[in-house]
Amino acid sequence: MDHNKKAVSHVKVTEIPPTQEIGESLLTGVILAAVLEEGQRPGVWQGMIQALNRGAAGTRAGTADAFLFQAMVDRLLAEFRAADLGK
Question: Cα separation of 15 and 13, whole Å?
């Protein structure tokens, strides 16, 4: 064994404070994509906004940001777990 090798320096990782802010442009994009998926017929926009408000009301923070953030986390975990099952 070669004892003269230099030890690998440790990388210092700093944590960025987590945020659940989605932002107005992403929020609008999500609603638009959902409306287009359903088809632009009378009442769909209002229905999507009502659905978003119901989802938001079910979160601890009571916000659309929290609702969509949790949806993204749930989807990411589903993908992670599906990949993990294939091992």
Answer: 6
Specify the DSSP element, H or E, that contains 10. Answer: none
pLDDT band at 13 (very low <50, low <70, confident <90, very high): low
Mutual orientation of helices 64-85 and 44-57 as an angle, nearest 10°? 80
* Residue-wise pLDDT tens digits, 15-25: 777 788 888 99
What letter would DSSP give residue 39?
A: -
Query: What does the pLDDT look like over 60-69, one tens digit per residue?
Result: 999 999 999 9
- How far apart, in Å, are the Cα atoms of 66 and each of 59, 76, 80? 6, 15, 21
How far does CA 63 lie from the centroid of its chain?
Answer: 14
- Token pair in block for residue 50: 């009502």
Cα–Cα distance for residue pair 32/72, rounded to 1 Å: 17
Place of tokens 């777990």: 81
